[in-house]
Amino acid sequence: HDKLVAGFRRTSEKLGGNIASLLTKERLDRATLDEIEEALIASDLGPATASRVRERLEEERYERDMDAAGVRAVVADEIARILAPVAKPLEIEAFPRPQVILVIGVNGSGKTTTIAKLAHLFQEQDYQVMLVAGDTFRAAAIGQLKTWAERINVPIITGKEGGDAASLVWEGVKRGTEIGTDVLIVDTAGRLQNKAGLMDELAKIRRVLGRLNPAAPHDVLLVLDATTGQNALSQIEVFGKETGVTGLVMTKLDGTARGGVLVAAAERFGLPIHAIGVGETLDDLRPFDPREVAALIAG
Length: 299
Ligand code: GDP
Fold this sequence. Notes:
This protein has helices at 2-22, 30-42, 47-61, 68-83, 111-124, 139-152, 165-178, 195-212, 230-243, 261-269, 290-298, and strands at 99-104, 129-132, 156-157, 183-187, 219-225, 247-251, 273-277, 285-286. By secondary structure, the protein is an alpha/beta fold. The chain has an 8-stranded mixed β-sheet, sandwiched between helices.
């Protein structure tokens, strides 16, 4: 919990500071409402969230007195409403097993770390986990995932650099089924020669999986780096359309002032947000309580 609070501190300080500096007049007038709306957009909450908050303030407090705490309470309430329907932990429920989770996202977003954290989480829930090092484009990615697998003691399927990721996934499902794996987590490339190449590769992996089990992949998780702010939203747009993203994990919410992008993503896309990353260690992947996170962001 402390880490969560510390994680959102920079976001809430920025937002809270902005709001406090705007409320210099005795009554909430139109100019102040405009400024509050702009401050919310500048905090990465997105135009739709900002305008919802503005409408609420206008209905409830227009031409009446208002302090920063009052504004923040309305902000927290609106954020909680937006986050409530999307905050959904990832459930292991596929039958037959294994449940196949395809993890996608651009390099540097925290994909490898998130896979390790998820594997650790499922292990703690007594599931048998297996990893597939499907980012065959980067030798470093294979090595990094292998190191994590050894650390948390889960089996991993690896191939050669430049090898065919789809065949590796095929092998993963075969082996996973043989040894009774509950969850198969598949890493994928975050970048190939070009975007079309990357999308083709993901499509090919999906086709191969579908031949083994029409329900697979059961989950297509897009990992997003919160520190990239609005860029994270364009990634949902690009990957979402082409790869059938079923849910999001947002990482690096610790120590960024751009935590508001979590809300913008929820508001704009409505995709489940399965967990948030608030640090580099295995225990730093958290399911989240919408009310708690809303209160933390609003300060
Ligand atoms: P990938 O290229 O997408 O596989 O990204 P990595 O998993 O290698 O992560 C890139 C960097 O971000 C590494 O230094 C990670 O330790 C770090 N990282 C990943 N998730 C988080 C997080 O939630 N918080 C922080 N502070 N760092 C993270």
